[in-house]
C-alpha cells in the first residue's frame, strides 16, 4: 500500500489527480483483464503491450516490490517541457499541461524513475517563478471577472489565487464598512437564486 | 480571521475623551472605567468612546500620532526604510478607520489623515508582498519580520499559509527522494 | 474501465462543490457496490485456483484488489464530502432545511442531519450559564443591541422576547433586538439596514 495521509484520502482533487493517465508497458501477463486495452480483443494483457493506465492502477502494478508493468514519465514532465519551464515558467499554460500539474508531478516521483530528482527540482523552480505573478494578480483584481487571470493556472495555483482574493476581499469589505452589515447566508442566497431561475424557466 | 474580529481587538485600545456628563466609576468585565467628570479628559476603551460619541456624550481627543505632520514623517520613514518601521499603534489602521467614521469633527485635517494612513498602508502592503516573494524564492525555512500589525498579517495570511504549505510539499518531494536513495 | 462508475460520483462532487448539494446518487453507488462484488468474487476464484496450483494469476488479483480499494475510496469520499456539506447546511440554513434541499438527501443523510442537529442543540444548551449559548449567532462581533431591519418577504407575526407582536410584512421596517432577528437575516427574511 502506498502511504496516504488521512487528509488526502477523502480529497476530491487528490482522487482526480491519481486518475490521470501515464504510458505503461506490460511486463508480466495479466489474465482476464484484456479489456483494459481497448485496441486489443484478447482476453489477457500480454507482456509487451503498451497502454495508458490511470496512476492508481499503474501504482498498484509498478513499485519496488512489483514490476507487473513498467512506466514512463508523461510528456509534460519530460526534459523538453522542463526546458520550456526553465526558460520562462510565467508564460506556460500549466492548466493545459495537466490541471493538477504539481500534485500529479509529485505523485509520479513515487515511481523513482531516473529523472525523478530533475522533475522534483523543476516543480519547485516552476512554482517559485510563478508565485509572484499569481500573488500580484490576485491582489489587484477586486470585483473583477477573474476567469482570464486564472485560465493558465493549474489547480493548486487556482487555489492560491482564491486565497489571495479572499484576503483582499475581506479587507476591502471591512474598509468600506460592509462587514458591519449582517447578511443572508451564502447557501440560502444561492438556493434562492436557483429556485428563481427554475421558476423563470417553467 | 475576519477583519471584523481584528477590529474587535482594536476596540480594546484606550483613547482619551472629554465627556459632557458626570458619573461615578463603572465596573466592567474588561476593567473599571471612569469616573467621568464633565469637561475633564478621561481614558476609555475605543468601543466605549465611539458609543459615547454616537450618543453625543463626549468629544474625542485624537491620539498623538493622528496628526498630519507626524504621519508625514512616518510615511517618509516607511518609504526610506527597506524594512517595516514601527507603527505608532499596533492598530493604527482600525483606529483611523473607526475614528474617521464617527468623529471627523473632532479630528483636524481628517481627509489628509485618511490619505496619509492609506498611503502608509499601501507602502507596507507592497513591502509585504515583496518580502513574501523573496521568502518563497529563497531556500529559507523561516523569516523574521518585525513591526507588522495584526491587520496586515491578516490580509496576507490566507495566501501566505497556503503558499508555504505548497512549498513544503514540493520540498519534501526532494528530501523524500534523497532519503529513499540512501535506504 | 475499472472503477469508472465510482469516478462519476467524484466528478459529480467536483461539479457541485460550490453550489447546492445534488440528489444522493443511489443508482451509481449501487453500481459501484456491484462492481466491487464482482471484483471480489473473481479474486476469490483466482486465489483458490492459485492455492490449487495454477500459476501467474497474481497480477490480475493485484490489479483487481487495487480497483476494489479505489472503489471504496471513491464511495467513502462521496459520502464524506456530502456529509461535510450537510453539516455546513445546518449552520447556513438553520435547523430546518428547505423542503427541496431535504429532498436531495439520502435516507441515512436525513438521519445524520437530525442527529447532528440534536448533538449541536444539546451542546449549546449545556454551555453558558443559564439557558445555554447559541453558537450559530454573533458570528461576527456584535456592535449594537438593537438593529434596524427591512422585511424582504411576508413572514407573518413575530413575537419578541418582551411579548410584543410584530407583523413582518414585505417592505415594512422594524427596530429589533439583534439576537432575536439575526437568524431571520441569515435566512433572507429580513435585511439589515446600516446607516453610513
From TrEMBL, chain A:
Native species: Mytilus galloprovincialis
Subcellular location: Nucleus
Family that this chain belongs to: Belongs to the GINS3/PSF3 family.
Record's keyword terms, sorted: DNA replication, Nucleus
PANTHER family noted in UniProt: DNA REPLICATION COMPLEX GINS PROTEIN PSF3
GO biological-process terms attached to the record: mitotic DNA replication initiation
Residues annotated as domain DNA replication complex GINS protein PSF3 N-terminal: 10-62
Pfam families xref list: PSF3_N, Sld5
Location (main, coarse): nucleus
Domain of life: Eukaryota
UniProt function note: Required for correct functioning of the GINS complex, a complex that plays an essential role in the initiation of DNA replication, and progression of DNA replication forks. GINS complex is a core component of CDC45-MCM-GINS (CMG) helicase, the molecular machine that unwinds template DNA during replication, and around which the replisome is built.
GO annotation, cellular component aspect: GINS complex
Domain GINS subunit: 80-175
Protein name, per record: DNA replication complex GINS protein PSF3
Subunit structure: Component of the GINS complex.
Entries under SUPFAM superfamilies matching the protein: GINS helical bundle-like (SSF158573), PriA/YqbF domain (SSF160059)
Ranges where the record places region Disordered: 182-202
UniProtKB/TrEMBL annotation, chain B:
Domain (GINS subunit): residue spans on this chain: 65-165
Gene Ontology annotations of biological process type: DNA replication; double-strand break repair via break-induced replication
Pfam families documented for this protein: PSF2_N, Sld5
Signal peptide (UniProt feature, chain positions): none
GO cellular component: CMG complex; GINS complex
Segments forming domain DNA replication complex GINS protein PSF2 N-terminal: 2-61
Sorted UniProt keywords: DNA replication, Nucleus
Compartments, as annotated in UniProt: Nucleus
Family: Belongs to the GINS2/PSF2 family.
Protein name: DNA replication complex GINS protein PSF2
Species per Swiss-Prot/TrEMBL record: Mytilus galloprovincialis (Mediterranean mussel)
UniProtKB/TrEMBL annotation, chain C:
Subunit composition and interactions: Component of the GINS complex.
Pfam families from the UniProt entry: PSF1_C, Sld5
GO biological process, one term: DNA strand elongation involved in mitotic DNA replication
Domain GINS subunit intervals: 32-127
Keywords: Chromosome, DNA replication, Nucleus
Gene3D superfamilies assigned to the protein according to its UniProt record, in alphabetical order: 1.20.58.1030
Chief location: nucleus
Domain DNA replication complex GINS protein PSF1 C-terminal stretches: 143-194
Protein name stated in the entry: DNA replication complex GINS protein PSF1
Annotated Gene Ontology cellular component terms: GINS complex
Subcellular location: Chromosome; Nucleus
Domain of life: Eukaryota
Family: Belongs to the GINS1/PSF1 family.
Protein role: Required for correct functioning of the GINS complex, a complex that plays an essential role in the initiation of DNA replication, and progression of DNA replication forks. GINS complex is a core component of CDC45-MCM-GINS (CMG) helicase, the molecular machine that unwinds template DNA during replication, and around which the replisome is built.
Amino acid at each position: 500500500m502506498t502511504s496516504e495521509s488521512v487528509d488526502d484520502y477523502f480529497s476530491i482533487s487528490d482522487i482526480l489527480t491519481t486518475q490521470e493517465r501515464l504510458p505503461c508497458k506490460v511486463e508480466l501477463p495479466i489474465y482476464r483483464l484484456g479489456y483494459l486495452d481497448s485496441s486489443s480483443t484478447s482476453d489477457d494483457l500480454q507482456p509487451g503491450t503498451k497502454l495508458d493506465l490511470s496512476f492508481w492502477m499503474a501504482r498498484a502494478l509498478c513499485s519496488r516490490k512489483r514490476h507487473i508493468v513498467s512506466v514512463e514519465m508523461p510528456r509534460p514532465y519530460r526534459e523538453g517541457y522542463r526546458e520550456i519551464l526553465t526558460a520562462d515558467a510565467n508564460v506556460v499554460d500549466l492548466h493545459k499541461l495537466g490541471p493538477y500539474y504539481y500534485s500529479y508531478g509529485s505523485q509520479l516521483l513515487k515511481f523513482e524513475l531516473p529523472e525523478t530528482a530533475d522533475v522534483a527540482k523543476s516543480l519547485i523552480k516552476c512554482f517559485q517563478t510563478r508565485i509572484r505573478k499569481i500573488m500580484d494578480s490576485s491582489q489587484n483584481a477586486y470585483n473583477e471577472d477573474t476567469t482570464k487571470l486564472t485560465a493558465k493556472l493549474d489547480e493548486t495555483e487556482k487555489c492560491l489565487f482564491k486565497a489571495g482574493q479572499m484576503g483582499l476581499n475581506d479587507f476591502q469589505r471591512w474598509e468600506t464598512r460592509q462587514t458591519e452589515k449582517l447578511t443572508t447566508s451564502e447557501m440560502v442566497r444561492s438556493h434562492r437564486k436557483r429556485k428563481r431561475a427554475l421558476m423563470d424557466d417553467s | 480571521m475576519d477583519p471584523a474580529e481584528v477590529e474587535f481587538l482594536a476596540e480594546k485600545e484606550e483613547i482619551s475623551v472629554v465627556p459632557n456628563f458626570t458619573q461615578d466609576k463603572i465596573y466592567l468585565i474588561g476593567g473599571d472605567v471612569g469616573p467621568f467628570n464633565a469637561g475633564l479628559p478621561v481614558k476609555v476603551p475605543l468601543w466605549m468612546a465611539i458609543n459615547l460619541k454616537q450618543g453625543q456624550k463626549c468629544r474625542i481627543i485624537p491620539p498623538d500620532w493622528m496628526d498630519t505632520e507626524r504621519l508625514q514623517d512616518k510615511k517618509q520613514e516607511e518609504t526610506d526604510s527597506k524594512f517595516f518601521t514601527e507603527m505608532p499603534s499596533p492598530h493604527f489602521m482600525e483606529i483611523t478607520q473607526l475614528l474617521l467614521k464617527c468623529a471627523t469633527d473632532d479630528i483636524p485635517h481628517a481627509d489628509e489623515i485618511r490619505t496619509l494612513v492609506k498611503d502608509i498602508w499601501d507602502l507596507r502592503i507592497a513591502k509585504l508582498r515583496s518580502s513574501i516573494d523573496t521568502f518563497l524564492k529563497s531556500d529559507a525555512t523561516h523569516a523574521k519580520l518585525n513591526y507588522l500589525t495584526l491587520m496586515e498579517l491578516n490580509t496576507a495570511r490566507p495566501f501566505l499559509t497556503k503558499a508555504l504549505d505548497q512549498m513544503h510539499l514540493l520540498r519534501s518531494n526532494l528530501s523524500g527522494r534523497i532519503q529513499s536513495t540512501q535506504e | 474501465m475499472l472503477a469508472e462508475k465510482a469516478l462519476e460520483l467524484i466528478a459529480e462532487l467536483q461539479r457541485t462543490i460550490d453550489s447546492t448539494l445534488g440528489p444522493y446518487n443511489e443508482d451509481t453507488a449501487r453500481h459501484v457496490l456491484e462492481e466491487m462484488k464482482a471484483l471480489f468474487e473473481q479474486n476469490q476464484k483466482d486465489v483458490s485456483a492459485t492455492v490449487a496450483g495454477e500459476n501467474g494469476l497474481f497480477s490480475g488479483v493485484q490489479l483487481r484488489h487495487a480497483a476494489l480499494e479505489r472503489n471504496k475510496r471513491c464511495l467513502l469520499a462521496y459520502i464524506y464530502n456530502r456529509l461535510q456539506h450537510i453539516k455546513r447546511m445546518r449552520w447556513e440554513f438553520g435547523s430546518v432545511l428547505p423542503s427541496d434541499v431535504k429532498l436531495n438527501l439520502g435516507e441515512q443523510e436525513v438521519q445524520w442531519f437530525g442527529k447532528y442537529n440534536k448533538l449541536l442543540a444539546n451542546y449549546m444548551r449545556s454551555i453558558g450559564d443559564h439557558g445555554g449559548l447559541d453558537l450559530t449567532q454573533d458570528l461576527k462581533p456584535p456592535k449594537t443591541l438593537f438593529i434596524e431591519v427591512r422585511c424582504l418577504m411576508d413572514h407573518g407575526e413575530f413575537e419578541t422576547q418582551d411579548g410584543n407582536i410584530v407583523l413582518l410584512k414585505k417592505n415594512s421596517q422594524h427596530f429589533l433586538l439583534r439576537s432575536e432577528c439575526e437568524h431571520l437575516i441569515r435566512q433572507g427574511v429580513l435585511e439589515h439596514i446600516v446607516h453610513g
